[in-house]
Amino acid sequence: MQSDTSPFGLRGFLIDAPQFGTLRGRPNGAVLIDNGKISKIGDYDDLRRLHPNSIRWLDRRPAAIFPGLIDCHTHLPQYSVVARGESELLPWLRQHIFPVEREFTGPKARAEAPAFFQELVRNGTTTVMAYAAIYEDSCDAGFEAAKQSGIRAILGKMMMDLGSYGQLQPKKVLSISLLESERLCRKWHRSEEGRLEYAFSPRFAVTCSEKMMRSAAELAARFEAYLQTHLAENREELEKVHHLYMSARDYTHVYEKCGMLTPHTVVGHCIHLNPREIAAIAAAQSSVAHCPSSNLFLGSGLMKLDQLLKAGINVGLGSDVAGGPELNMWQVMRAAIEVQKARSAYEPNLRPLRPGEAFYLATLGGARALGKSNIIGSLDSGKEADLIVVDLAALLPYPNEDALAELTPEDIVALCIYRGGPQANLETYVRGKCIYQAPSPAGAL
Ligand code: GUN
Ligand code: FE
Q1: I need a surface site. Which of 42, 86, 136, 264 has the fewest CB within 10 A?
Q2: The pTM of the whole model exceeds 0.90
Q3: Is 3 contained in some domain?
């Protein structure tokens, strides 16, 4: 595995999405990586001429080189119960999620967290934003595992003081949760030269008091950390919030009143929003994590992606495990496309989401949603070298030379979305360091 910091070159079919709707491709391309950054991008022949043997060259053909995938919303303690339960959000949380989160502490958390991040990097995810359980040690274990794995991670301890799965009285829960969250933030925020960051994480308005949400927002502002929560995922959730917060104009207004909508806020789901709410999120410059595979699994609804994008909201994608059944972001892109296809069957003027656009959401779109598009999300010189190398032969039904030679960037992205996953992921790099390498096939030298 590439692990030192000396410069090296990677050769392959370079593909990225510099904006929504645009794919950029370089069939015989090369990326030069120096000191964790992309120092040059270009055609292999040109770069090779400039740097004949002064650096190490890794020829990865027939492979595509993409910016690393970005998962803007998932849950560390829930991975062990993926694909469990056929109920909607609130009964699913009670029956399947709170019981497993309640256990996610001590040796169990320390054992599962490394496997979770290993699984993310095996799937080609280079940046993840995730919730731990309510326990301080569950979040600590998450950060420790993320640190070891080499992934870029934004994590936070789950905060909830209404109907929590913990044993403490709500009043105690509030003060302890604030104290522990602050302590975790002080310990981990911007550690590993900024590779690890903290997100204050009030679960959602159903399980958080106003005081908790307001305090979480204050802490996030004080430490210039992220805030993450869930919003408008499910109809029953909306009704619950309406009854809890009768004076609020709508669900989003509950968060606005608590100061939770900020440019450092990432709200998950956002399916059942009215136009005022969409405008309020846009005006606050908060970002949205769209979780289509989860929304299908839990029958939550079909997000009006076009309306959020039209309002100028930065939208990234989230696996939302265990609402979503897998960490594979190609499958999340596929679900995003299929949700918009399902909508367009009933709304004739709606343009479906194209594979290249879904790919944008999982790369540069996600980077924008996390306020990181200056450092990651595309293959541009000067950016940090978060990349994945995907074996094209593993995606094609008949991987002969002619079929490989004919592939366009659009074909390749579509193949990844419909057939991609860990079986085709050869390598994952963060800051130019190879943090995952597929095992060589049996019998290979
Ligand atoms: N809303 C509040 N908590 C959760 C959660 O853990 N998963 C999902 N999908 N939605 C939520
Ligand atoms: Fe979630």
Answers
A1: 86
A2: yes
A3: no
Strand blocks (E) in 363-416: 387-391
444 pLDDT above the threshold of 80: no
Q: Is the CB of 326 under 6 A from ligand 1?
A: no
Q: Residue 423: CB partners within 8 Å, gap ≥ 6? A: 394
Token pair, residue 372, equals 């990181």
Q: Considering the domain boundaries, does residue 443 fall inside one?
A: no
Is residue 314 lining ligand 1, measured as CB closer than 6 Å? no
Residues 230, 350: one domain? yes
**Distance, CA of 159 to CA of 142 (rounded, Å):** 15
pLDDT of 265-295, one tens digit each?
999 999 999 999 999 999 999 999 999 999 9
Ligand nearest to the CA of 78: 1
Q: Is 280 exposed, middle or buried, given 0-12, 13-18 or 19+ CB atoms closer than 10 A?
A: buried
73: CATH: 3.20.20.140
Are residues 79 and 50 located together in one domain of the fold? no
For 55-81, the pLDDT digits (tens) are 999 999 999 999 999 999 999 999 999
391 in the same domain as 338: no
Ligand nearest to the CA of residue 207, numbered in listed order: 1
CA distances from 411 to 23, 335, 407, 425 (A): 11, 18, 6, 17
Torsion sign, CA atoms 115, 182, 366, 255 = positive
Number of domains in the chain: 2
pLDDT higher than 90, residue 166: no
CATH number of the domain at 58, please.
2.30.40.10
Rounded to the nearest angstrom, the distance between the alpha carbon of 333 and the centre of ligand 2 is 17
Pocket test of ligand 1: the residue of 71, 93, 100 to mutate, having most ligand atoms within 8 Å of its CB, is 93
Mean of the pLDDT values across residues 4-8?
Answer: 81
Residue burial 323-345, b: 16+ Cβ < 10 Å; e: rest: bbbbbbbbbbbbbbbbbbeebee
Q: What's the confidence (pLDDT) of residue 442?
A: 57
Q: Is 80 exceeded by the pLDDT of residue 5?
A: no
Look up the domain containing 34 and give its range: 8-67+378-437
